[in-house]
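Ticket opened by: R.M.
Priority: normal
Category: complex prediction / small molecule

The reporter submitted a protein together with fe (ii) ion and asked that the result be attached to this ticket for the collaborator who will pick it up next week. Submitted input follows.
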Amino acid sequence: MSFPKNAWYAAAWGADISRELFARTIINEPLVFYRKESGDVVALSDMCPHRFAPLNKGKLVGDSIECGYHGLHFDGSGGCVFNPHGDGSIPKTAKVRSFPIVEQDTLVWIWMGEAAAADPVKIPDFPWLNDKETFVFTPASTFSMKLDYRLIVDNLLDLSHAAYLHAATLGAAPGTKDITDVRQEGTRIYSDRLIPNSPPAFVFTATGAANPDDIVDYWANMRVDLPCAFYMDAGVTLSGRDKSEGNVLSSVQILTPETEDSSFYLWSAFRNYRKDDEVLTQVIADTIKAAFSLEDEPMMHEVQVRMAGRDFWKMKPILLSGDGAAVLARRITDKMIAEDLAISEASESDKRIPLKEVGQGV
Ligand code: FES
Ligand SMILES: [Fe+2]
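Result attached by the on-call engineer:
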């Protein structure tokens, strides 16, 4: 298992879920989503308990799904509420699992562990996504990537790759000196990176945040809520100026594992300058998209092929000065997965029937 179960994952952007049935697999669990007439989002296991048809191939009838195969109806709690066959009685086991959902900061969050343990306070906060006064946003987008999400976490926590992998699109000159600071608060890691008194990285000139001839200070501060929800605070000022004067080009980059080797990548970039310039919004979206899909994704895919499913630590990767945050993230995620296993083993042993109850040892 490469991901924790007891975690909140961003299932989708709120705008992606409507009165149409929406199918998405998260940590190997096929799910179907929809909005009730009230607007509340429902997430159910996407398999009918009768002959195992995908419920997303059915249709909504009021607030229930009618299975597209033989017509059972399941409501938002997963209970069967209508049986068109025989005397219409509802078989006791006719139930699908429903998942806790919270809609927050324009995102739909799902808890994939035991429902009783779902604590909305633990959902990572992204208040910037609600701040339409300060920022203008690229469209809320989702990439589907054939990648283990942990490779993308490695990538985002070591931005020194920008000078090499994104040399022609986003990066600074190779060898640019930065000041980094890594710190941990529970399952949250901050990895702050400041490049003082330098020519701007391409990303800032390509997106109109700085002029190529400027000498600037720029920053790229990552916050990750493990296992995989990132906020990047990035921006640029003329050298020596206060950060509050800066042109901000920040982003949310939230990963959701689909399977061990595929992931969804929910992202939106936002800026506080030239806010009426719609052409610039498109340029920013296109620049980021090109860097992800033409540079990051192919490289990470090659890495995944070479790793061939082997354990990261057993491959004994060499560690460089910029690896602190990514290594810490791997260790904390491993611990979350180990704690999950402990929880599920404990609950399995609770379910075991004591010997005397099955007539032994009497
Ligand atoms: S498979 Fe759903 S009602 Fe038969
Ligand atoms: Fe990158």
